[in-house]
Structure formats: structure tokens, C-alpha cells
Fold this sequence. Notes:
8 strands, about 30% helix, globular
Amino acid sequence: MISNVPQFALALALSFIVSENAVAAPKAKKNSRPAGPAVEWVNVLPAGKSLPTNTTHRTFFSEAAGREVGFCVYLPPGYGSEAERRYPVIYNLHGNGGNEFHSFEDVEVLHEGIVSGKYPPMILVLPNGGHSTFYKDSHDGRFPIETMFIRELIPFVDKTYRTIAARHGRAIEGFSMGGRGSTRLAMKYPELFCSLFCQAGNVPRTSENFDAENWREYLSGYLGPDKRNYEENDAFVLAEKNRSKIAGKLRILIACGTRDGGHLPTVRDFHQRLVELKIDHTYIELENLAHQRTKMIERLRSIWFDYHVESMRLMTPKGR
Length: 320
């Protein structure tokens, strides 16, 4: 289903065929991922890698985690000189195995677009979601990732920077685990965001994986033995529950490659469920694309942030 967005839809149609401190885990070997959930709360910029233009690495104290947590933030040109201006914010969630030093290509695309005049000045925040947490709170409290992000980082950003601290000034997105996390969080807290971009994020029917006797086998026992945790972390259940807060108020863009066999089935399933719920959205399958973030950016580069920008424009109350 293509939402009623002529500029975005036209550009899309012309470009593509639409058809898809560590916790509780030993330190991973170089270029490998932990076997289960783990978080290095504040990371160090990898050797040979540099922060993009106008991007800094910061920390804030998380009461939920009981320690400092790292994040990166991009501030647009003019931020320092236009003292009265407020800016919309995009939160970009990283994939599994990542940390706050991620999605630098996205920052570069946004910066180029702002400098050229294609995009309005915006802030981009790169949170740290750890490994294999899927941006959920663990049932035992050891990984309060959702709480840290929703109830602490977003308010900290709004307090620290000159943001538009309202739904129409806030968007969320992410690739892979970040797409899965951003989709669930947007379904759970639709009042916080006006725009969602799920980039090849697996969208499972989490509640159907509940097994009272064998709960430790699903996501390393992350959600625990209480069925309510599975329902509260199921994007399908949340979309139906919060339909009145989502339909016509949260704009949704979903993209996945037709060769992304590990993610495409659940993405198609979620797309179909949104159709059944009559939740308007834009859905794209990119031909012959596997689970490849940089290649997805390359193919959609010319319109990469168009959807968020248009969402913010459409959702801004008249007179603002």
C-alpha cells in the first residue's frame, strides 16, 4: 500500500520497482558478536574511523542502567549561531553487533542534503542499544534498553538540545535489529513519533513464541516466563491495540530486499497486517537486494530522508 504522498511516491516509482562496561557476557572476539544479550555502555571510536562532520560522542547518566551511556549526535550547520531556532530529531537505531558508533553513512547523506538545501536542518541521534537486546527491557532488569531510550535518552536530548520536543518533531528509524526495535517502539509509543522508517527490520509475532515451560530458549530467555512480556513486545499486538493512535497520526515506511530471506517473510507479514488494520503506510521491496544496509542506502540515497521530512511537514499543526 502506498500512502498518499505524491512527491515521495513519484520519486520512488521513477527509481525502483516495488515488488521486499560489558554486562553478563564475555568480551567478544574481534569482528564477532556475543552469543547472547550484552551491552558495552560507553564505547570507544574504532581505530581508523572518524566521526562525521558536526557529530560528537556524548554520554548521559541512566538511572535505569545505573551508569553512563554513550550516544552520538549530529547537529546541523547553523545550530550554534541560530540561538532561537528549534530542530526536529531523527533517532537512528543500530543493528545487532553495533553500538553508538554506527550509521555514519546516514549522517553524511543528511548533512549533504541540508547543505544543498534539499533537507531542512535536523538533528540526528545515534543511541547505543547493545547486542541482541532488540531494544527491549530484559525481564530481570539487567538490560533496561527500552526504558533507557524512551524514558531517559529522549528527554535528555530534548533538555540538552534545542529540539522540537513534540510528536511532529520526532522520527525513528533503524536497520535490521534497529528496524525491528524502531517498529516495535513506534507501535508501543506512537504518541512520541510522527514517522517510522523500518529498514529490513525483522517483525516477528513475539507473543506466539511464548512457552511457559521452555521460555529460556527464546531470545536467551530475555523476556522471561511471563506471557505479558511477550504481548507487550509484539508489534502485531501493539499495532492493533494502539490503532487509533497510529492510523493517520504515525506515518510508516517499510523497506526490505527481495533476497533478504531472513527478514522478508516477517516484513511481508507485518505489512499485510497493517493493510488488514487499515493503517495506511508505504511498503517497498527492493529487487535483488540482500540484507545489505549500505547498498540499501545507495539505492535509496536520493530520497533517503524524504519520508521523514514530509511526515514532519504534514504532521506539524497549522500555525507552527
